[in-house]
Amino acid sequence: MENTVVIGAQWGDEGKAKITDILAEKADIIIRYQGGCNAGHTVVADGKTFKFHLIPSGILYKGKTCIIGAGTVIYPEVLEEEIENLKKENIDLSGLKISPLATITMPYHIDLDGASESGAKHKIGTTKKGIGPTYTDKIARRAIKVQDLFNEESLSGRIDEILSLKNKELKEIYGLKTYTKEETLELCDKYRKIIEPFVFNDWQEFYHGALTAKKTILFEGAQGIMLDIDWGTYPYVTSSNPVAGGSCTGSGFGPSTVKEIIGVSKAYITRVGEGPFATELTDETGEKIRDIGAEFGTTTGRPRRCGWFDAVVAKYGVLVSGLTSMAVTKLDVFDTFEEIKICTAYKDKRTGKTCEYYPTDVNLHKYIEPVYETHKGWKTDISKAKSYDELPENAKKYLKRLEELMGVKISIISVGPKREQTIFV
Ligand code: GDP
Ligand code: IMO
Ligand code: MG
To answer: Which of 105, 113, 118, 227 most suits a substitution to test ligand 2, by most atoms within 8 Å of the C-beta?
Structure first.
């Protein structure tokens, strides 16, 4: 396998972790490069279900180096819980490394995320994990990085500066509890102890060695292209760069390192939180997809909004992330469907004109409606199919049409949550 980026090509929860886990078997290094514990990544392996929020999905294989990269934001309380759960399952954590350059989510970030959401006129529907406020502080240069936890003297000065601003914001804008220096230092001490066994101080030496020895690197994206802070449906997005470019800025491996970029799409689309979703189904068909696909958030348990596959979104993802192929997951969810629709274009209700390009201004979405074509279902259980040839004709036709519309090949087809329910094309 070549160095490969795996990213969500929709609004998250596409089944990235399942694909990452499968490819991780052939990789030496697996790196999470953006996002934080807003991510909920499910891997079903050896009859057990694992849910990851921060730790790369490659951790289930022994002998891999699994890095939580510089571009991520880490809430140490969630990290600790994840570590403890994996230890209970006897998962070897000796390969887990945490970048000293990653940013720490503090409890006040979570307080602020919750308060700004509940007070907002236009809610984003965040996961309330403090992601936006942490990235805000990072960009404003007033965040605590992992390496700061290990420098007592500078940390003390930084906390003075941070709290003088944060406490004002907490109290005066949101009427929230403030933080004392003493308790903040105590929290930092606790967080340092959680992270210390894994901190990746010799990462430069390791990266040099890995590149020289041509080790195989797998980049695990979180969220999805349409939730990207620059390229997604702003402001209904997350606060990092899930697009393929983020894999370089967030990992410290340059663009020339990456050879393959696999986008992951469901055979339909889901979205949690607010924001435009042209093909959303608010009727019984949407409910049927949610029921069969068990579409409830891994991190928050919220019901996911469901809708038909949108080729305009997929084509946009191929463009802004330079996808070299697509993995299509959850094809089995359509096993009982008489008909399946694909959105091939958008029609502007004002002019009647159709367009195959994604309107990036969310304010224009009230004027568009999806143009659909309808495909016959296959009415067969495909969850045991082991090869492309074993798929029913109508399923093949559906996939072929997706390829045509997206402009890239489908390299992986997933027909169930388990590792063995995967078809490499
Ligand atoms: P991620 O955030 O992209 O890693 O995806 P999530 O873990 O949040 O959600 C994907 C869900 O779909 C998980 O519960 C997976 O176990 C499940 N899943 C993944 N691939 C398939 C598939 O091909 N078929 C079915 N039925 N379930 C799948
Ligand atoms: P994985 O990696 C689906 C969504 C939230 C909200 C928006 C902003 O499992 O695919 P945030 O808490 O990030 O500030 O919320 O982004 N969101 C996700 N949706 N899957 C995710 O992660 C998500 N992470 C964030 O629902 O709409
Ligand atoms: Mg998820």
So the answer is: 227
